[in-house]
Amino acid sequence: MAGPLLVVAARSKGELPPGLKDSKLLTRAQREAFYKNLIEVCDFGEGWVSAAEINKLGLGRCLRLGVKRAIDDLQVELDEEIMMDGIVNYIPKKFINRRCEAKADNNYPIVSAASILAKVKRDDYMRKLAIKYSEYGFESHVGYGTKAHYLAIQKLGPLKFVHRTNFAPFQELPQQL
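The chain above was modelled as a monomer; its predicted structure follows.
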């Protein structure tokens, strides 16, 4: 409900650590331990998309934009193999060896690595945002739709360049928002 979208592209340049899996299945401590190792054995490309862009363009277009930015940042070659997590392939068609698979972030270690880096970096961004907007509790819910986050929005209103106000949950909040 809040904060930027971060899409990460990863390329291994060494042996990946054992035990990699979908970042959502790991604890914060596990993700951060993996992160320290992964930044040594992988190259990463980051595709940040702001909440303002999400509000203007919609999530689907922003996912495509984030993928493009991540691939460009990593400087992926047109014939390089690209695997994406999900059921919708947002990889530009000019890449000839591209595919998309549900649960790839749990089944392919390099996709897990990208998932972990994205989660750690985005959560860190949200925790830093919590310093400026401490009353919203970003340090604990990192922008997700928790009860505490809903209550903060009801009490304080959405933050213009932070909240994704075109998301359905905002339509369900009281009209004074």
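The beta strands are 5-12, 42-49, 82-85, 98-101.
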